[in-house]
Amino acid sequence: MTLLRNIKNGIQNFWHYRKIVWRHRDWDYGFILEMMKFQITDLATYLEKYGWEVDEGRLPKIAQMKRVIELLENERNDNFAERCGWKLSHFDWKKREDGTYELIRDTSEISDEELSAIFKAAQILEDDEWKECMNLLKDIKTWWD
Asked: Over 70: is that where the pLDDT of 1 sits?
């Protein structure tokens, strides 16, 4: 009976994780973040709907999980520069004589100092959010019902 149950659960698990497994690659930490985000999202959804723990203990854990999901999404999207004021319109593609393209910066829209400040702020934001995420994950052992 245990073997049949394990086979059934294995098939159900594979079906549940099929999209994340299909996209998985082992050369980049981003795919680890995707898997973690997927699993934490499942757990938060389950605890919100079916959790037995009293709200005083359960809701802060769910809030932590949602914040971790948001931070993982930010890391995966690498949107820190945009959130600090960088715009794609600061750059444009220029066609070269040989038919290739060169990325050039529109210096009339933003100065070197402003661009440097944006990227410095973006790096600080990324570092701060990564530290926050790792700090929140320290409580992962308590994220169960």
From this structure: no
